[in-house]
Amino acid sequence: MQTITAQSATWKWQGFTIGYQHAGPTQLDDQSDAPAVVMIHGFGASSIHWRKNMPELAKSCQVYAIDLIGYGKSDKPMPGDPLDYTFETWGEQLLAFCYEVVGKPAFLIANSIGCVVAMQAAVSDPSWIRGVALLDCSLRLLHDRKRQTLPWYRSAPTPYIQKILGYRPLIKLFFNQLAKPKAVKNILRQAYGRKEEVTDELVSLLLEPAFDPGAVDVFLAFIRYSQGPIPEDLLPKLTCPALIIWGQEDPWEPVELARAYGDYPAVEDFIELEGVGHCPQDEAPELVNPILARWVKEKNTP
After folding, report:
1. I need a surface site. Which of 82, 187, 228, 283 has the fewest CB within 10 A?
2. Which helix (H) or strand (E) element contains residue 177?
3. What is the distance, to the nearest Å, from the Cα of residue 249 to the centroid of all Cα atoms in its chain?
């Protein structure tokens, strides 16, 4: 079977250019019958992080992968001019994308902070979200409310670190050190359970948007963002079915802290992947793709 190739495109939202990718089935008689799937990336990533998943799901779905504003091929306006980089902002962007580009209710598949965006959208307008699949959802451990539950020696330094990072010349120097292939590769190798999946191609793709105007300010805005919703706020409010997939070797979002998410009424399954880290979709697509394709098919069956 011929491999389906995703096509890059742009869309205007609130005057800003938003990048996204799209792929769909070529063999269906009526492609409008194919369920819509929208994929949402995590912090520091972009729609390219779904490059191993879109072709497989596009065999039976209309698949979109969006660049959240501030990331990837999307514009990177200064924070507060006229919007802030918050989950409410991104949730609004995601819903507008569904309304104006996708054109019908969609299944959302997300990784890391993208999971919080997906849930925010699902809670804000349940009629447009058919289900959410959450891959290693951000636990938001640095959130103000989460830090209150940590031992003092773990939580006390955070506000001071965030204040120091608010000094732009310092953060620019810090960012420039991070935005180098060797540094990015080292960070990814910490996050990935399957180290061999951290390729030069992946590093290059993720690094490219880091040199866009405004990228430093977006980075600063998010690392200082310790408010807004946490998963525990949104999971109880979900009215659509939820699937959770988690890499057991995730060092950033430990599975031990996440298993309780499987107890929420909307969560129908909590699947753990052995030997996989923070980005299952990129590390183990041969495991993740069949799970996601089966889930969408089951939820799309009348």
Report:
1. 82
2. helix 168-178
3. 18
CA-nearest of 5, 293, 295 to 131 is 295
Distance CA 70, CA 78 (A): 9
Question: Taking a C-beta distance cutoff of 8 angstroms, is the pair 33, 7 a contact?
Answer: no
d(CA 260, CA 241): 16
C-alpha closest to that of 91 among 66, 74, 72, 73: 66
Cα–Cα distance measured from residue 265 to residue 263, given in angstroms and rounded to the nearest whole number: 6
Cβ atoms 41, 50 nearer than 8 A: yes
Residues 55/4, Cβ–Cβ less than 8 Å: yes
Q: State the DSSP code for 212.
A: S
Q: Judge whether residue 150 has pLDDT over 70.
A: no
The CB density around residue 64, as the number of other CB atoms within 10 Å, is 26
How far apart are alpha carbons 92 and 69 in whole angstroms? 11
Domain spans of the chain?
7-300
Please say if the pLDDT value at position 199 is more than 70. Answer: yes
Residue type, 42: G
pLDDT in tens, 75-85: 999 999 899 99
**For 19, left (φ over 0), alpha (ψ -120 to 50), or beta?**
beta
Question: At 241, phi and psi to the nearest 5?
Answer: -70, 145
Q: Of 222, 157, 211, 164, nearest to 184 (Cα)?
A: 211
Instruction: Give the count of alpha carbons within 13 A of 54, CB side only.
Output: 24
To which CATH superfamily is domain 7-300 assigned? Answer: Alpha/Beta hydrolase fold, catalytic domain (3.40.50.1820)
* 3-class secondary structure, 211: helix
Strand, helix or coil for residue 129:
strand
End-to-end Cα separation, the chain, in angstroms:
28
Token pair, residue 104, equals 């019908």
If DSSP codes are grouped into helix, strand and coil, which group holds residue 262? helix
DSSP three-state, residue 15: coil
The answer to whether 189 touches 144, Cβ cutoff 8 Å, is no
